[in-house]
Each structure stands twice: as C-alpha cells, then as structure tokens.
Amino acid sequence: MKPSFRRKPAMALATIVTGLLLFTVAVPQSSVDEKRVRAHMEFLASDDMQGRGSGTKYEKLAGLYLASQMKQFGIAPGGDKDGIGLGAYIQTVEIERTRIGKTTLDLGPEKSISLTGLRIGNTSLEGPLKRISIDETAEAGSITIVTTLDGTIPREAFPSLFGSPAKALILIAPPALMQQLSGFARRASSMTRIKGTGEGESASLYLVAEEKAGLLDSIPVGSIVNILSEITESTTSNTWNSVGKIEGSGGSGEAILLSAHMDHVGVRENAPGDDKIFNGADDDASGCVAVLELARILAAGPRPKRTVYFAFFGSEEAGGFGSRYFVGTFDRPLEKLVANLQFEMLGRPDAKVGKDELWLTGYERSDLGSELARNGAKLVADPHPEENFFERSDNITLARRGVVAHTVSSYGLHTDYHQASDEISTMDFPYMTNAIDSIVKPVIWLVNTDWKPAWKEGMKP
Ligand SMILES: [Zn+2]
After folding, report:
1. For residue 62, what pLDDT band results from cuts at 50, 70 and 90?
2. Among 447, 10, 62, 18, which residue's Cα sits nearest to residue 263?
C-alpha cells in the first residue's frame, strides 16, 4: 500500500505562524490518490452509465466526464477542431457500414465476371487492366490480375498484397485456394469505413475462380475496366474519443500516447439473471482511471520534454473504431509517436505474477518493457501468452502502423470478464491505487528522456 502523504499548500505559512520546526517532507508529485480512484470508478462503472455501450450516448458521457477531469487538470483539448467547451476534447467518429451483394468485373458490352471479395475498400472502381505474377509489384492505380506461382498464396506475400498501390488486385484462384480463403470472403460481404481516415484507399482484393479466368484473356492489357459492388444496405453511426494533450518543451516533436478504452459492452437484455448491466469496472474503467491519474500527476508537475497525449477510445469492444480514427487523423507524423501504453484491467491483481507486478502484452517484442522496468516499473512479461492479449486491445491498431505500442494490465483471467458481474464491488482499490502509482515514475522518465524504444528484429506485428 502506498504512503498517504498529501500536498498541503498552507503548510509553509503554518510553519512560520506557529514557529514549529518541521522537517519538510518532499511530497512526491507522483502520488496516486485512492479517494480519486474510487470516485472516478464509482462514476464510470455505475449502473447509471449503463455499461458504456460502444457508440452509445453513455460512451459519450464517459468521454465528457473524462474531458471535464482533464480540463480541471489544465490539460489542453485534443479533440474536434470546431468543438467548444468540453466538446473540444471529444473526437467525433463517423462509421459507415455497407452491406455488399454481388461484385462484378465489367469487361465491356454484355461481358462480366463475378468476383469474390476478400477486402472491399470501395464499391465502384475504375482503372487500366494489368497482369502480374504474385512475386511482382502492381502499378499504382491499376486493376491488376495476379497469377499465383503454384496455386497458393505464400504467407509472406500478404503484406505486399494488402499494401499494394493498385486500386484492386484480382487473384486467380484454383478451387483449393477459393476454399482456403472462404472465411475471409464471408467477412468481405460488408465494408466498414471510418470517415476522415483514408480507410478504404488501399487496394481492394478479390478472387476469381480459375475456371472463369479464361474470359479475362481476351481483354488487352491497358483497357479501362470497372469493378462494381452491389450495395444492399448502408448505415452511418458514431463513436467518440476523449483526447487531451500536454505540449512538450523539448522541441523534437516527439510524443507519447497514454490510452485506455472508455466503452464497454452496455446492457444485454438476454443476460442470465436479473442484472443486465455490464458495468465494465475492470474492463476498462480501471484503465481509464489509470490514465486519468497519470494525466493529473503529469499536468501538476514540470512540463515534460515530449508531448503527451491522453486518449480515451470509444468502440474498442466493437472493432477498435476509436483508436483507428485517432491514428488515421493523428496531427503529426506517426514516426513522431515514440510509444503508446494502453491500460487495461488493473482493478485486481493477477496471481500469475508477483504481488505488486503488472504485465505488459508483447513484452518480448520490443525493448520498451525492459527499459521501463530498468527505470523502476514493476513490469513483467504477459503470463498468459496463449490468450494473445497483445492483439486484443487498442495498442494493436498503433502497433500495426509501426508505433511501439503495448498494453499494461494485471488481468488474472477472472470469471467476471465481460459479465454483468464486472462490478465496482470486485475492485481491489488498495491494489489498484498501488499498481497505478508504481507506473508513475517510469512514465515520467519516458516522457522526459531522449531514449527511443524499438521493435526487436522480426517482432514488429
Ligand atoms: Zn478492455
């Protein structure tokens, strides 16, 4: 348990007035306050917040609460440019969902071939037809037919397919390959895009069955062709992030992101028993409170060298839409984002690690965890590698874009996970307070050092 020294501004005056000789105890700025931890948790995980369902008004209310706290700490808003008041901390995310029917490659009068979508970024594409084999690079803006070398797609080919500069790639697939990729194809029957992020601008991928591919031979290379997908339904919805920042004094433009997700799974009428509200106390009100306390302490201290972003993401539980928007609209080059620490489920200890320890997902992938540990963090490797937690929170959105990004947690696989019973009453507040406190100094070091974390060879996701 942490010592409970508190800053008392009136002390110096009191000392003079009473003439008492007091040894001045240097009150550390880095002191997490259990009363605050409890108060934030009691708001965020209350029944009145209705489980903060992804994209619901309760998610937004959580965001406004977090914004209100950041404003009190003196943290600048980092939300919508035209936002006013607390709204300046809020990022409004528009999600467009389109259901796709048939997709066809139009080859001119009365000639078309049906395609199976693997990834559809746009429902209407036009470009010059090109042909390559899978080990070649497609031309920018083209619609390119890709032949495989032996009827399979090697694992290592996928990154270049997904990152292709073409508008579309059409892979000629023998029956075995069609079968192998049928799972992907089912998912591609809908398209979800986040407005403003440029999502969907990367290459669309399709399969064409080998037996139909003969029709393509008659089309000269360079002909302008169209790919059209039938839209069967289209809806738009919102989610929100709550974002604040402290501008660094260092002038390097480097930044650190501290984050958590404010949404949970809401109310489920079909849940067993009387309690239908999934409060999400541990998941992830606890992480939000960790970021909030770090924000308060950093804002109260000397200005850090690196800029620090505090982001509370919406719709993590529904597909990471909040973090995808944040990354897609980030206001400086992503290379300047030196590290991201996401905080998840710190409300209870994990018996698999030491009493005061936290664990870091993907610890072995970069040198960030070990370096934080060298600087005092009680941080160890994730003891549940089989759960693949590294890919199960918002950090993965950033990691896939190259940012050294991990999640800090102490989730011990308790059975209240994603249940209505993930309630305040199960929180271990002294543990949680101490856990957040233990990461404060290492974070203060991280936002002030010139040291940069890096992925270990071959470990970048
Ligand atoms: Zn979570």
Report:
1. very high
2. 62
**How is the chain split into domains, by residue range?**
29-94+237-446, 108-218
| Cα(126) to centroid(ligand 1), Å | 40
- 329 C-alpha to center of ligand 1: Å? 23
Ligand 1 centroid from CA 278, angstroms:
12
Q: Ligand 1 centroid to 344 CA: how many Å?
A: 6
Superfamily of domain covering 29-94+237-446: Zn peptidases (3.40.630.10)
281 Cα: distance to centroid of ligand 1 (angstroms): 10
pTM score: 0.84
Residue spans of alpha helices (H) in 80-191: 158-162, 175-180, 182-187
Q: Report, as an integer, the average pLDDT of 53-68.
A: 98
CA dist 205 and 316 (Å) reads 26
The pLDDT tens digits for 20-59 are: 444 445 444 569 999 999 999 999 999 999 999 999 999 9
Q: What is the distance in A from the centroid of ligand 1 to the CA of 213?
A: 45
Dihedral sign from CA coordinates of 402, 404, 409, 414: positive
What is the tens place of the pLDDT at every residue in 365-382?
Answer: 999 999 999 999 999 999
* H helices present in 100-240, as ranges: 158-162, 175-180, 182-187
Q: Which CATH architecture has domain 108-218?
A: 3-Layer(aba) Sandwich (3.40)
